[in-house]
Write a structure and sequence with these properties.
Rossmann fold; about 40% helix; 15 helices; 9-stranded mixed β-sheet
């Protein structure tokens, strides 16, 4: 296993506290491995193996206990009467009414509980009904650029930083893709299987969707418009041009389900001058660049959108609330806020003219506050500061952010 300290260090302070530790994220992003890393940390602290119970509900081995009552009856027979038992439930959303069983374990026994799930309901207020605020939620993402480099050092050959960033942008961050050297076709085949599993298990099957073709067309539209604002009406109009009729409410429902399975992330717009979030024309980003490429194929024309996508995901990893900034003169790619900290970010693949340079910098200069402002790019450039605006290569920016 390759350690992922970003998550282990966030979870460690809550070991042996009266909270259920809930890890959620897209399938195959590494949640199960992180659970095993936590279990190893417990053993390092002297917890014996027999006090650690691990259940993987993606396995047929546990098909007979996928209800709250059956899970409770199974586990209570294995819990130690004297001393704490540590419970690990992987992909717990496969258990009907799992919250009731987990709440009972907390109430009836001396336990410390860790669960993972591939549905955003795991992080929503819905589970508070049963867990009554006694849970800590942690989002798990595919590999960051820094984590990708760690995998490359162990399983591959590491080139220059900027060359590795180009590979990361193309191959994405699903851990399974980086356990050995794969060709692009092989890597996208792995990710396409993850995509299919997520679509049919977490969306189609769970929501009893009959018009699968409709759903897949919406996925393709969203993937093809990463980094662009669009609405349900624009999706409906696009499908109508293909002789497919669908109402706006159904489009929103499908987009919400894609969000729920962590395939898509919704990014709202923020009026910088008015200091309010706007409710129309949102942007959507995909959980991992390789997910888009596995469905639509790789094209050089898609790189600019994927650069935005990678920066957006990294800001989320670092705990920022992220929005698209709206100014009278245009957009700021990202306004990111974390507690009292705020940063503004503009992203471009390359600056090839004075006009492009003026556009990227002038929008940031129009913001009259003292929070850090960045222009991020991937081409060669001279100097790193322009009237207080810091210019950085995207790879360097991704590695510079503090957790």
């Amino acid at each position: 296993m390759v350690l992922r300290p970003l998550y282990i260090e966030k979870i460690t302070p809550y070991i042996d506290t009266p909270f259920v530790k809930v890890l959620s994220g897209v399938r195959r992003c590494g949640k199960s491995t992180i659970l095993k890393m936590i279990a190893e940390r417990l053993k390092e602290r002297g917890v014996p193996d027999e006090r650690i119970l691990f259940y993987d509900f993606d396995s047929m081995r546990y098909d007979e206990i996928k209800t709250a009552k059956n899970l409770y009856n199974e586990v209570k027979g294995r819990i130690f009467a004297n001393g704490r038992t540590y419970l690990f439930f992987d992909e717990i959303q496969e258990v009907k009414d799992w919250e009731k069983a987990v709440n009972s374990f907390m109430t009836d026994f001396d336990t410390d509980i860790y669960v993972t799930g591939s549905n955003s309901r795991m992080m929503s207020s819905e589970i508070s009904t049963y867990l009554t605020g006694r849970f800590i939620g942690l989002r798990v993402f595919t590999l960051s650029f820094g984590e990708y480099l760690t995998f490359r050092k162990k399983y591959g050959t590491v080139g220059s930083l900027h060359a590795e960033f180009a590979l990361y942008l193309r191959y994405g961050g699903f851990p399974a893709v980086h356990l050995r050297e794969y060709s692009a076709d092989e890597a996208y085949s792995i990710v396409r299987d993850i995509y299919n599993s997520t679509i049919y298990t977490d969306i189609v099957k769970r929501n009893e969707i009959r018009k699968v073709d409709q759903l897949e067309r919406i996925v393709r539209f969203a993937f093809d418009n990463i980094g662009r604002t669009f609405s349900a009406a624009s999706v409906s109009k696009y499908l109508k041009s293909e002789n497919r009729t669908i109402d706006n409410e159904t489009v929103y429902s499908y987009l919400s389900k894609l969000e729920g399975a962590f395939i898509l992330h919704r990014c709202s717009r923020y009026d910088i001058q008015g200091k309010e979030h706007l409710k129309t024309q949102e942007k959507f980003f995909v959980c991992d660049p390789a997910m888009r490429y596995s469905v639509l194929g790789y094209t050089p024309q898609s790189v600019a959108a994927m650069l935005e996508n990678v920066v957006y995901l990294e800001l989320l990893r670092r705990g920022y609330d992220v929005a698209v900034g709206q100014l009278p003169g245009g957009e700021i790619d990202f306004v990111a806020v974390k507690q009292e900290n705020k940063i503004y970010v503009q992203i471009c693949e390359r600056i090839v003219s004075d006009k492009t340079e003026t556009r990227e910098y002038d929008r940031l200069l129009a913001i009259k506050d003292n929070y850090p402002k960045y222009v991020l790019r991937t081409d060669e450039f001279a100097g790193g500061n322009y009237q207080g605006i810091k210019t950085m290569h995207i790879a360097d920016f991704l590695l510079s952010l503090e957790y």
